[in-house]
Design brief:
By secondary structure, the protein is mainly alpha-helical. The protein contains 8 helices and no strands.
Length: 164
């Protein structure tokens, strides 16, 4: 139990620090590199679904409150929290399987949940969020970050698991 709590705290600290460093640059850098996504995917892969999903839910809210990004108004941080919860959960559930397959499943599930939130839930709550085309542009902006994740996460995950 203590190990899981300390793992979660370490992932939150790493996520906060990476978000802080990325957001020292212009706003779009975070949308391109996806630092929170990277940390949550690693947390799920290395620490399991409970830690991955908890970190995934808490990290965007923590950085939104302290750093102002992702924004709370419109509620991008809230929708990202649900998306990253899915990322951490899927990676944790599939951590013993093929990491590449787990990444693809996590990305698809998380993006579907985020899209649903933006296109369906936001208007129901009275928020005028991006249209479908703007959503696709934001996904396209994240392609470099996804490529970096696809290249680094399996390697990091494998190395850390071998060292334990």
């Amino acid at each position: 139990m203590t190990r899981k709590l300390s793992d979660g705290a370490i992932w939150l600290a790493i996520g906060f620090l990476s978000s802080y460093l990325v957001h020292l640059f212009p706003m779009f850098v975070g949308q391109v590199l996806l630092p929170l996504h990277f940390i949550v995917l690693l947390a799920g892969s290395l620490s399991g679904s409970a830690i991955g999903s908890t970190v995934g839910f808490a990290l965007p809210l923590l950085t939104a409150i302290t750093l102002g990004r992702p924004p709370l108004q419109p509620p991008v941080a809230i929708f990202m929290s649900v998306e990253l919860l899915c990322y951490g959960l899927i990676m944790g559930l599939m951590k013993e399987k093929n990491v590449y397959m787990a990444l693809v499943y996590a990305w698809i599930t998380g993006r579907v949940v985020f899209s649903f939130a933006v296109l369906v839930v936001a208007p129901m709550l009275g928020f005028k969020m991006d249209t479908f085309s703007s959503l696709m542009v934001s996904f396209a902006l994240g392609i470099p970050g996804a490529i970096i994740q696809f290249l680094l996460i399996p390697t990091i995950s494998k190395r850390v698991k071998l060292s334990r």
